[in-house]
Amino acid sequence: MLATMAISWAWLLGAVPLLFLAFWHAADVWYRAAFFLKHGKKCLPPGHMGVPFLGETLSLLWYFKHARRPDEFIGAKKTAYGKAAGMYRTHLFGSPTIIACTPAANKFVLQSPENFGVQWPEPELVGHTSVVNVEGATHTRLRGFILAAINSPRSLRTIAAVVQPRVVAALASWADKGTIVAATEIKRVTFANICMMFISMEPSPLTEKIDEWFGNLVAGLRSFPLDFPGTTFHRARKCRRKLNAVFREELQARRKKAMATKAEDDDVMGGFMRMEDEQGKKLSDDEVVDNIVSLVVAGYESTASAITWATYHLAKSPDALAKLREENLAMSESKGGLSFITHDDIPKMKYTAKVVEETIRMANIAPMAHRVAKREVEYNGYTIPKGWPVLVWVRSLHTDPNNFQDPLTFNPDRWDEPAKPGTYQVFGGGYRVCAGNMLARLQLTIMLHHLSIGYEWELLNPDAEISYLPHPKPVDGVAMTFRKLATK
Known about the structure:
One of its GO terms (biological process) is sterol metabolic process. This protein has 16 helices and twelve strands. It is α+β, with helices and mostly antiparallel strands and 488 residues long. It has a single domain, classed as CATH 1.10.630.10.
């Protein structure tokens, strides 16, 4: 009897690891077998598909959310499969996926529109007809308008004048409070400026709700697509529908106003409403709403996050802050003590520009760009199957010590020399490089100028842990004391 029980337990203990191994490799074997049957001796990029259905999504979330070591997700693949491939196979967010994570591989994907199109995991959240999802002539026309509206020198001159009064007032209010959560305050002023630029909305209870809905929408962009009550993705979809309703109501109100006054709003939404294609056809309401939502997501959350990180790193880098303060005080004095700067002043602010670039390199606001293989694609001896999503993992470039010395150290002076070709892709690359990249730099520069000439601050929790989803930020939101700069 005892011998029989011992044999049973031995069999059970031996079977459990075998069952685990079978479960772990089942998805990878399935995809490799299906690929072999279709493609013969061709090879998928190295990697592993993770467990059935979930793939490596839980592993990614563990590295980003719980271990707080996001770079080890890619680092583990480089260690296991070698760095030379430049691409790895995996299974993320419900789909078999290829990850590109070297300068050469990223360039190949981003600059090959004939091979790769755009495909967000859930396109409806950013809008099926928005500039970030459409292709061809429609993309070219929308992108051209956006560049003219928010990224041209003429537009940036106007924006620089418009946003500064609100920035100056916000900073004074922070000093009156004495203690602030920087992430919250910076989001508030950045959102107010974006609302004014894009849709001419002044702060109100409605814009506070819109801000909340956008926050939930952004959280859903990198969540697992499980659509049932209580999930992040379900909440994101609900908030997207609320945003749709608000902006459609705004469109109708504008049309009634235009009929009554014969005047149209001169903002980004108004520009979208007036846009026409070669046949004189205007954008539909869905197209206008989709593009406004996608622009606010891109122009608000990312800019606010970058400014937050600037205050964080400068608080921990007194030498860099001293250099920044010296340059900006000199700029203010050269303008006769005027605190406002113009777009034409910015090229003279050399050290400030280095702080801007170092901030957005380290912030890694958008750690990946989403693409999809339009056809079967060969790269470096490997085959990317048609229809597979491709993640261009730009974060790995900016945190790689082969590309940047001591990459996790804030060092604006590293920008005395340009980055190695292909290693700096904070705004993506190719024909889809972020259309608002200069607007983001402008807003960051303006905030740095007014912070440095008038205020000083200290972190309450300088060793606070970092949360990396949906965007990187210290878990305390960069709580700090904030006061007017003591005059000598």
